[in-house]
Write a structure and sequence with these properties.
By secondary structure, the chain is mostly helical. It is built from nine helices and no strands. It has two domains: 93 residues, Methane Monooxygenase Hydroxylase, Chain G, domain 1; 116 residues, Methane Monooxygenase Hydroxylase, Chain G, domain 1. The protein is elongated and about 110 Å long.
């Protein structure tokens, strides 16, 4: 037991070093999340160029974080690194979809399979926002396209039926299904309201044309009544 203090001191130094790195990684991870959320806000405002700059910056920071934590798996398993990776995936997917591009390649982003899947699932929530924005702009066809994309993602992620310790996706799958059903219902109501509005407008036009015809007939009758017979003869 003579070396107890020496052994404990050595372990303490190692843990202090890991803790110092953990604090730095935590700050960087929060910065990544913030950049991604700002980029998504810009995407919804159609400021794609600025949004892409923020996504690229977040992606660059994520690569740096991965380099920092590679020798320390205990930090990776803490959760906030994977959370930052999911945010990058979500922002990149939303940006690509908004620009009518294909989804990003998981290998090029350089995240784990689990982080990519969970980030893709989170993108469905933003697609719902796109659909609601389309509804507010009376663009039902666009809203239908967003729902179609949501359903395609849902069908794709349903293939993954693994233990939560490997891919914790079950809750995400349930949430996506709920979002799709809710959005589809809102789009159906909006479509029904538009059909009613169109019918009302059509009926008003018909009434206006009928009223216009009646006014013309009344004018003709009034002219006949006011006709001076003596002048005619």
């Amino acid at each position: 037991m003579r070396n107890l203090d020496r052994v404990v001191n050595k372990i303490e130094k190692r843990i202090d070093k890991v803790d110092s790195i953990r604090e730095k990684v935590l700050v960087e991870s929060r910065g990544i999340v913030s950049l991604c959320r700002k980029s998504i806000q810009l995407i919804h405002r159609n400021e794609h160029e600025r949004a892409e700059e923020l996504v690229n910056e977040a992606h660059k920071k994520l690569r740096m974080v991965y380099k920092m934590v590679t020798p320390h798996p205990e930090i990776v398993n803490a959760g906030f690194v994977e959370n930052a990776a999911q945010e990058v995936v979500e922002a990149r997917c939303i940006l690509n979809l908004a620009q009518k591009k294909s989804l990003p390649d998981p290998d090029k982003i350089g995240v784990s399979a689990s982080a990519f899947l969970l980030g893709l699932c989170d993108a469905v929530g933003e697609l719902r926002r796109f659909a609601l924005d389309a509804l507010r702009g009376d663009r039902l066809e666009d809203a239908d396209q967003y729902i179609d994309t949501m359903e395609r993602i849902y069908d794709a992620v349903l293939r993954f039926d693994y233990p939560s310790s490997l891919v914790p996706i079950k809750k995400k799958q349930d949430k996506i299904r709920s979002l799709i059903e809710k959005t589809r219902s809102e789009v159906a109501i909006a479509a029904c309201e538009r059909r009613i509005r169109d019918k009302v407008d059509e009926f008003r036009s018909l009434l206006d044309s009928i009223e216009g015809g009646k006014k013309i007939k009344k004018k003709k009758k009034s002219r006949d009544v006011d006709l001076d017979i003596d002048r005619v003869w």
